[in-house]
Amino acid sequence: MQLAMWTYEGPPHVGAMRIATAMIGVHYVLHAPQGDTYADLLFTMIERRDRRPPVTYTTFQARDLGGDTAGLFQNALRQAYERFDPQAILVGASCTAELLQDDPGGLARALDLPVPVVPLELPSYQRKENWGAAETFYRLVRALAQPRTREKGGRPVCNILGPTALGFHHRDDVVEIRRLIERLGIDIGVVAPLGASPADLARIGEADFNVVLYPEIAGTAATWLTRTFGQPATKTAPLGIGATRDFVAEVAALAGVDPAPVLNGQAARLPWYSRSVDSTYLTGKRVFIFGDATHAIAAARIAREELGFDIAGLGTYSREFARELRAAAAEHGVEPLITDDYLAVEAAIAEAHPDLVLGTQMERHVAKRLGVPCAVISAPMHVQDFPARYSPQMGFEGANVLFDTWIHPLMMGLEEHLLSMFRGDFEFHEGAAPSHLGAAHADAPPVVLPANAGQSWSPEAEQELARIPFFVRGKARRNTERFAADRGVAQITIETLYDAKAHFSR
Amino acid sequence: MTPSLSADLTGPVAPVLRERGQREVFCGLTGIVWLHRKIQDAFFLVVGSRTCAHLLQSAAGVMIFAEPRFATAIIDDRDLSGLADANAELDRMVEQLLARRPDIKLLFLVGSCPSEVIKLDLSRAAMRLSQRFAPSVRILNYSGSGIETTFTQGEDACLAALVPLLPKSDAPALLVVGALADAVEDQLRRSLAALGIAQVHVLPSRSAMELPPVGSGTRYLLAQPFLADTARALEGRGARRIPAPFPLGAEGTQLWLRAAAQAFGANMATVRAATALQAERAAAALARIRPALEGKRVFFFPDSQLEVPLARFLHREMGMQLVEVGTPYLHQQHLAEELALLPADTRLSEGQDVERQLDRCRAERPDLVVCGLGLANPLEAEGLATKWSIELVFTPIQGFEQATDLANLFVRPLDRRTRLRV
Fold first, then answer.
1. What's the distance, Cα to Cα, between the start and end of chain B in Å?
2. Are the C-beta atoms of residues B336 and B361 closer than 8 Å to each other?
3. Taking the C-alpha atoms of A335, A338, A342 and A348 in order, what is their torsion angle to the nearest 10 degrees?
4. Which residues of A292-322 are buried (b: 16+ CB within 10 A; e: fewer)?
5. At residue A440, does pLDDT exceed 50?
6. Dihedral sign, Cα of residue A192, residue A195, residue A200, residue A206
């Protein structure tokens, strides 16, 4: 068992729902008790979809358990087929039905429906949402994709794989990346699963190569397509300026076209905004990063190379991509944090004393409690992650969006200088919120960590510490205490404070 | 307004439509979302799957910003394959939790669909752990599983689990049963005191340490219509139910208070004197809102078991026409006074086949649909105005002073449609 207050990912059948809901003409018949129907609201409320997800639940009850739950499933499947007239059907079980071992796949085969029925085996007690989405997409592709009939030559064609329903800015990423690829002179074959029908999946093999936007979701299917149809797949997630440029080069090489027109003609504002003098205050800000592996790893590169931040921590809840994240953490010189326990993430953030957290909605709560600014870079999804405006994360426009999103929560440069100049001033005091963020941001109490055992602060030193701007005070306190502990100093005085400052500023 | 109970005790005569198909409702775990706010020193530990944790987060995540007083002990394949002893694992979870939250005085182990199916005995676990952590923490269990409970039945199961713990007292007292918002609870307590009822207790109490007494002198009055098991448990302790409609709307509140007063021997003059001012104030305020709803046709999808009292309020006090009143479970006895106040031709449905119900709803084109979060936006997109029913559970709507808030919850979606030009 594992104790969870919040979870980063839902169960794997929710991943399957994300695929079914993204597509057209697919219906998912899920052997599940009534409570599992809550998942509909993820799509109708959080994503504000105007249609119910194409999912039929058997909603068996306790009184059915002694009887014929298998018959209940077959009934539900038959009725769903007749009512919704789908081109393909997914069948599977949620966590509770998995325990009943009714074998939805076998039961569906016995009905002999005249459309493809794809059985899903999603082990609920081992796996999670993204794995479920990847497995479902792979099973569908495997069941439906046909080999290439198009002759070689002509304009290059690629598929875009990975965007789903309830995906983190997937809706806009697809628009941005499609535009980018088309500007290279490459045609788009199939975009899937978002907006694709089973018939579209059938012609997935016609393309020359696949663009994998989200490896967490499309990785398994893309690997199978490489193996089966010889379609190469992209490796770079186009998040940030550098990665987008790499992505353009990678795609152009796969298609045999010249990347220069796109690379030279791009109008990203991030590079200049980041070089402009007002951004110098961003230099060396310590940022803690946590999210799904793709977004977290990309965020670390952007933070360091494109915004001039220091990486104070890097982690992911995507255990499937632990190796990739460990490699990235090593590159940035930090300990990798691979966990789906949000309390462990909270502890790591408190320990790191970052100036900015780039995380999920969970880290947003944590950061609020710790009084640290935060921007959201990854699922799990929140209604705020479906803005009305165009807001891609990927491509050159995506980089612009990331610049705005990450910089906005921070104190603006000039304000930060005024604060240190007038520390103790009755208006420019540390409790005042950044002027552009409104009063609501002011009340997050700064965290006071208890002094280490056997250490105490003299009142004068405590007072001096209080005059250090709040956004570096935690770090100053921690460094001073570590400095004192290393030297066996029990009473921290003003002198200890400045000795420590001199020591650490070398 | 002079509500009368006796004159038209007719009630619906048409047979109840009993449906068995796909049910689009929450499971009883959802009750934790409001129960953990109500019982302020209690913690709810669901023993379930990742789905349970995800449900709680999705149903509650948008509303709760403090560290929640609920969590899930997620069962994994090691527990299922027998590699780990599920009971030992559960003990470890509880240990870990109580170490982190020393402020917890009452811990509920909440059963789920998977824990029921694998027959994990939470009552034995609760006993075992109680012995270990007594007296600082009490540990109870109940089931919020979706194979046994629907949405608000989770509260029923939780309160029923508390009943054996209630201290015994045979002294005459009134026990108000059902979680209410604190402000509503205080208002109703004041009204009951004004009726001359000296001893008024509530279940659940705000603190796990102040449990109300129960015994042969206890008369209990349900504040919520979904408390069948709790009522049965209270009867088992000698308490007797005061039959009454539910305190929704000015009329419902007055009849509810009057039933309490009669049970405690107050005369009608006292009741009138004590409630006249509030009742008239509420009725006058409702009269101003009534034109917005009068004559409009409303359709209820099953959700919280509040549907029958809400339909009675909308029909009798706001003049709405009832197209269909769907409820997950129709408790004939507890709802007898409510059903008597509904028009004879009301179409009642119990249980659900969501696709067929949607067909009926689309065919009827009601002016307002009361339904769950999974259906609301899709129906809006089809041009139907909706009111999400979960708000009726999370908003203080009981009592005189909330009668207009209740009415306005139904007015707002209609009002919004008249304003928008997009």
1. 41
2. no
3. -10
4. bbbbbbbbbbbbbebbbbbbbbbbbbbbbbe
5. no
6. negative
What's the half-sphere exposure (Cβ side, CA atoms, 13 Å) at A156?
A: 21
| CATH class, range B173-280 | alpha beta
pLDDT in tens, A25-48: 999 999 999 999 999 999 999 999
Distance from CA of A500 to the nearest CA of B (A): 33
Interface of A with B in 121-160 (CB under 8 A): 123-126, 128
Asked whether the domain spanning B173-280 has the same topology as the one spanning B16-23+289-421, the reply is: yes
φ, ψ for residue A119, nearest 5 deg:
-80, 140
At a CB cut-off of 8 Å and minimum separation 6, what does B421 contact?
none
Q: CB-based contact (8 Å) between B377 and chain A?
A: yes
Domain spans in chain B, listed from the N-terminal domain onward: 16-23+289-421, 28-148, 173-280
**CA separation, residue B57 to residues A168, A382, B258 (Å):** 18, 11, 40
Q: Would you say A386 and A49 are in contact if contact means Cβ atoms under 8 Å apart?
A: no
CB A144 within 8 A of CB A198: yes
Q: Which residues pair with A187 in a beta bridge?
A: A157
CB B149, CB B35: distance < 8 Å:
no
Indicate the range of A251-260, A372-381, A426-435, B224-233 predicted with least confidence.
A426-435
B76 vs A: CB within 8 A: yes
Query: What is the token pair recorded at B103?
Result: 């402020």
- Structure tokens that stand for A330 in this block: 């090593």
Q: Which residues are paired to B47 by β-bridges?
A: B73, B111
The amino acid sitting at B143 is S
Q: Are A65 and B24 inside 8 Å of each other by CB?
A: no
Mean predicted confidence (pLDDT) in B107-123: 96
Q: State the pLDDT confidence band at B1, using cuts at 50, 70 and 90.
A: very low
CATH annotation of B16-23+289-421 = 3.40.50.1980
Higher per-residue confidence, B217 vs A427:
B217
B342 Cβ under 8 Å from any chain A Cβ:
no
Residue type, A229: F
Residue with tokens 């307004």: B1
CA A124 to chain centre: 21
Catalytic residue among A278, A404, A425, A443: A278
Q: How far apart are CA A252 and CA A239, in angstroms?
A: 17
Residue A282's nearest CA partner among A184, A390, A414 is A414
Burial A180-216 (b: 16+ CB within 10 A, else e): bbeebebebbbbbbbebbbebbbbbbbbbbbbbbbbb
Cβ <8 Å between A36 and B51: yes
Asked whether B42 and B71 are in contact (CB, 8 A), the reply is: no
Residue B138 exposed, middle or buried by CB count within 10 Å (0-12, 13-18, 19+)? buried
Two structure tokens written together for B93: 């979870």
- pLDDT at residue A429, rounded to an integer: 52
Indicate the average pLDDT of chain B. Answer: 93
Closest among A50, A385, A16, A23 to B374, alpha carbons compared = A50
The pair of structure tokens assigned to A399 is 């980089």
As given in the structure block, the two tokens for residue A14 are 């929710």
- Helices (DSSP H) in A333-426: which residue ranges? 342-352, 361-370, 395-407, 413-421
Which of A302-311, B70-79, B215-224, B268-277 is the least confident region? Answer: B268-277
Q: A347 touching B, CB under 8 A?
A: no
Determine the pLDDT at residue A115. 97
User: Which DSSP symbol is given to A45?
Assistant: I
For the stretch B290-329, pLDDT in tens is: 999 999 999 999 999 999 999 999 999 999 999 999 999 9
Topology given in CATH for the domain delimited by B28-148? Rossmann fold (3.40.50)
